[in-house]
Design a protein that fits this description.
Blueprint lengths: L2 H17 L5 E3 L7 H10 L4 E4 L14 E4 L1 H18 L8 E7 L7 H10 L8 E5 L4 H14 L5 E5 L3 H13 L7 E6 L3 H6 L5 E6 L2 H18 L6 E4 L2 E3 L5 H4 L7
Helix pairs in contact: 3-4, 5-6
Length: about 260
């Protein structure tokens, strides 16, 4: 579905919930350019709103409504520090066949701090061997963007990929594997929800992720909205959840039970 049809569907659904006179709205807008319109419509209708994951913000990045999501910068920093340790432990810093690929999503404001955190951790690494593949966070676009970088730099035989979403990293993993470089490469996602399937696939080079609890994000936002509606409790301006790095050695059923099925 293209952006314009998706925008239209979003606005139709927003008008529907307003017409239904709902008590409150939790929203993850498909396009942050719709932020002001969203807030204006709901404010006029007297309906409280909380942005989940992607903030409702103005063109200068100022919040227009309360937001619940992840601490993007520090999660990216933790991912980057893990990556630095991976480089050091495997003696890759001086290996000219080694490169770092950052899967970015520069048009999504909530994703940008994640990349900034990764870059901060990598500030002492050879910047000429850090590459970027920008996409829309989906696996399909991640695969396309990563493939362009991989084929454009045949001198790199060993990749460390760090992403801003699990899906874009998954797409990069498939591109690396298709290029025959999976055995000597490491792909890390962000989110962790794809880890159970990826870790179970021994041929996958997707072997790590920065996991955060989507249940915590959604549950916190829902509770804040309920408290506001029922008790008049003021909604905090921001709430950010932390993340931890997971690998196949971790007990995923204990760490992320919401994503593990028996």
């Amino acid at each position: 579905m293209g952006k314009q049809p998706l925008q239209g569907l979003y606005m139709d659904l927003l008008d529907t919930v307003i017409a239904d006179k709902v008590d409150g709205v939790l929203v993850c807008t498909p396009d942050q350019n719709l932020s002001q319109m969203t807030v204006d419509k709901l404010t006029e209708a007297g309906i409280p709103v909380i942005a989940v994951d992607d903030a409702l913000e103005d063109e200068d990045g100022n919040l227009l409504a309360p937001w619940v999501g992840i601490d993007g910068y520090n999660i990216g920093l933790a991912m980057g520090e893990w990556g630095v340790n991976y480089i050091e432990e495997n003696g890759l810093a001086e290996d000219e066949e080694f490169g770092v690929l950052l899967m970015t999503a520069d048009t999504v404001s909530s994703c940008v701090p994640r990349t900034e955190g990764e870059l901060e951790a990598l500030k002492d690494f050879d910047q000429n061997r850090i590459f970027r593949a920008d996409c829309d966070t989906t696996a399909e676009q991640g695969n396309t963007a990563a493939n362009a970088v991989i084929t454009g730099h045949p001198e790199i035989k060993k990749w460390l990929v760090m992403g801003v979403s699990d899906e874009s990293s998954q797409g990069a993993a498939r591109a690396i594997e298709a290029a025959g470089l999976g055995a000597d490469s490491m792909v890390a996602g962000l989110g962790g929800y794809l880890c159970p399937d990826e870790f179970a696939n021994e041929s996958s080079c997707f072997r790590a992720a920065a996991y955060f609890s989507a249940r915590d994000v959604g549950g916190t936002a829902a509770q804040q909205l309920v408290d506001c509606i029922t008790n008049g409790t003021e909604i905090p301006e921001t709430y950010a959840v932390p993340a931890i790095i997971v690998t196949p050695e971790d007990d995923l059923a204990e760490v992320m039970p919401e994503y593990v099925t028996e």
